[in-house]
Design brief:
This protein is mainly alpha-helical and about 170 residues long. It has 8 helices and no strands. The longest helix is centred in the first third of the chain and has 43 residues.
């Protein structure tokens, strides 16, 4: 009887040590995915506060999700919390340097705070990563149409428009 008991205990221990962690990981990832989907739905419906709550839950489960930082950054931008938007975009960029959307949102937040040079630089970076980023493209074009705004930004050599020869 003692051998059967020990065998049963060993099987149960094996089961809990080997089989349960992957199941927990699947539930954990599934839950993060559900919160992620909810955050996207909230963003589409304009419920930015609820999107932030759902993004917080995703980041609690997966703190390296660059995309989630971008979504939460956009939500913060939409509710005019520009410092938080910039911070989340910085977090996203630390995790994915090629995330053009993070640069676009961060540029827009810098622009709202009056930091035109940083805004222009971020939008240019976004366009270098993704030349089809319509938001960044429109922001750069709009800035270039306003001489009072574009002059400080155009002092940066890499961002100057080519001069036409006469």
């Amino acid at each position: 009887m003692k051998k059967t008991y020990k065998k049963t205990v060993l099987i149960l221990v094996f089961f809990f040590l080997i089989l349960i962690p992957p199941l927990n990981a699947q539930v954990f990832n599934h839950t993060a995915h559900e919160y992620f989907k909810k955050s996207l739905e909230c963003m589409m419906n304009g419920d930015y506060q609820e999107a932030i709550v759902n993004c917080n839950e995703v980041l609690r489960r997966d703190p390296n999700s660059a995309v989630t930082y971008v979504i939460r950054g956009r939500a913060y931008y939409e509710i005019k919390e520009y410092d938080k938007a910039i911070n989340d975009c910085n977090q996203a960029i630390r995790r994915d340097r090629n995330n053009a959307t993070a640069y676009t949102i961060r540029g827009s937040a810098h622009n709202k705070k009056g930091d035109i040079d940083s805004a222009f630089s971020d939008w240019q970076t976004a366009l270098n990563i993704n030349p089809f980023d319509e938001e960044a493209k429109l922001n750069v074009e709009q800035m270039l149409k306003q001489p009072a705004l574009r002059q400080p930004a155009l002092r940066q050599p890499a961002l100057r428009q080519p001069q036409t020869q006469r």
